[in-house]
Known about the structure:
This protein is mainly β. The chain has one helix at 2-9; strands at 12-19, 25-32, 36-44, 56-63, 68-73, 88-89, 91-92, 105-107, 111-120, 128-136.
Amino acid sequence: MGSVMQNGLNRQSTQLRIGTQAATASVPGMVFAQKSRIKKVSLLNGAAITADNTNYLQVSMKDLDDVEYAELDTRAAHEGALTALTPKVLNLASAKLASDNSGELEVPAGTTLKIVATKNGTGVPTDACLVIEWYPL
């Protein structure tokens, strides 16, 4: 537990570019060479997106087997609207949470994560990026 606490205090922040996508896209994320923890994942979008059930954006972070680690959905019944240039925290997948009740995701060594941005109507990611707060174990 000591190394988890020590490394958790020295977390890193990595920005992963999504860009502007006119259609649903899967973009490269990051490779975890060693077992790691993710504390928080936030979406930063260059434009506002209203909470709408027709024009919405879904963003998820998945491994290469399409197992979801984090997700966000701008529909009204989900996480709702995005404010331009204001980070919005993604939901962390409960199946991937560490067993110590820290609320952090545990990522096995050798895992590659990708970002999947699904747009509907005018719910377009605009100069968007994910900000990952993480630390190696």
